[in-house]
Amino acid sequence: MDSRDLNDRAAWLRGPSAECSVVPKRLEQPWRLVLLGPPGVGKGTQAHLLTQRLGACHLSTGDVFREAKTRNERQQTLAMSAALNHMCRGTLVPEAVVWQVIRERATCLRCQSGFILDGFPRTLAQAKVLKLLIENERLSLDAVVNYELPFAEIVSRLSGRRTCQKCKAIFHLTAQPPRTEGVCDLCCGPLYQREDDRPEAITVRLNAYQSSTAPLIQFYRNLGMLTPVVASGSPEEIFRRTATALEKRRKFDCDPFASCADSN
Ligand code: AMP
């Protein structure tokens, strides 16, 4: 297995007091990407595939909030408990909490193996501050990948999605069912339906996307960074399109369709 698979992203998921299980590899030209697109379009799955190929760390703000939810209430600040209520309803977490989360994890943006941001930025204000943060570090984004899919297909994907409680692998009841019902193929952990993947929360999330996140498409288009990718088909098909689109921006330093570890 590629050693990069073993990185448990502890510093990102649990904050600065935790250390990642694997020291990130220093890459000569690390990739720094933002993944955009409506909820359920497959950003998490693509981030995982990109991580395996590029070695960059998968930084998902949604995963940070879900991780916080697993801690007991006494370990949570009042602001974080309020934020988790927003997440369960499908509304956006208040900006102040998002900024605290990002500030505490700023070292992950400097990670020597690069990063793949998933679920952040989600508002124009977040995108503008991220731009400043990255510029202050004298870093730059390689691309902003925008995954595109009709809303009807998104609703079907979200309502059938099941996530592994342990390793966070993603399955789908019909499109990608696990070998044994309710059990993760990869680590045998239990599969569950995220609270915000229930029908009442899906509509709220899609509305939040339309009003707050969709304007980012124009923002990044104006900066010349937008890389559109059609998100229909299997995860592997979508990954191939992503790799082809990214290669037009910058050559991969290994075959994007084989594990980078194989070619090192
Ligand atoms: P995700 O896993 O990216 O779909 O995120 C799950 C939920 O976490 C979202 O529906 C929001 O409630 C919250 N969330 C994640 N990232 C952000 C963000 N950047 N800004 C505000 N809320 C967020």
Order of SSEs, N→C? HEHEHHHHEHEHEEEHHEHH
Bound molecules: adenosine monophosphate
| Secondary structure tally: strands | 8
Distance between the termini: 13 Å
Q: How much of the polypeptide forms β-strand, as a percent range?
A: 5-15%
Largest sheet: 5 strands, parallel
The shape is: globular
How much helicity do the residues have?
40-55%
Strand order of the largest sheet: 2-3-1-4-8
Query: Unreliable runs, pLDDT <50, ≥5 residues?
Result: 260-264
Mean pLDDT across all amino acids = 88
Provide the gyration radius in Å: 17 Å
Count of separate DSSP helical elements:
12
**Secondary structure category:** alpha/beta
Secondary structure elements and pairings:
Elements: H1 10-14, E1 31-36, H2 43-54, E2 57-60, H3 61-69, H4 78-89, H5 95-104, H6 106-109, E3 114-118, H7 124-136, E4 143-148, H8 151-160, E5 161-164, E6 170-172, E7 191-192, H9 199-213, H10 215-222, E8 226-230, H11 235-249, H12 260-263
Helix pairs in contact: 2-11, 3-4, 8-9
Bound molecules: adenosine monophosphate.
The site of adenosine monophosphate has 16 residues, from helix 3 and helix 4.
Describe the structure.
- It is built from twelve helices and eight strands.
- The protein has helices spanning 10-14, 43-54, 61-69, 78-89, 95-104, 106-109, 124-136, 151-160, 199-213, 215-222, 235-249, 260-263; strands at residues 31-36, 57-60, 114-118, 143-148, 161-164, 170-172, 191-192, 226-230.
- The strands form two sheets. The protein has a five-stranded parallel sheet with strand order 2-3-1-4-8, with helices on both faces. Strands 6-5-7 form a three-stranded antiparallel sheet.
- Strand 5 and strand 6 form a beta hairpin.
- Helix 2 (43-54) crosses helix 11 and helix 8 crosses helix 9 (199-213).
- The radius of gyration is 17 Å and the shape is globular.
- Mean pLDDT is 88; it is low at 260-264.
- It binds adenosine monophosphate (AMP).
- The site of adenosine monophosphate has 16 residues, from helix 3 and helix 4.
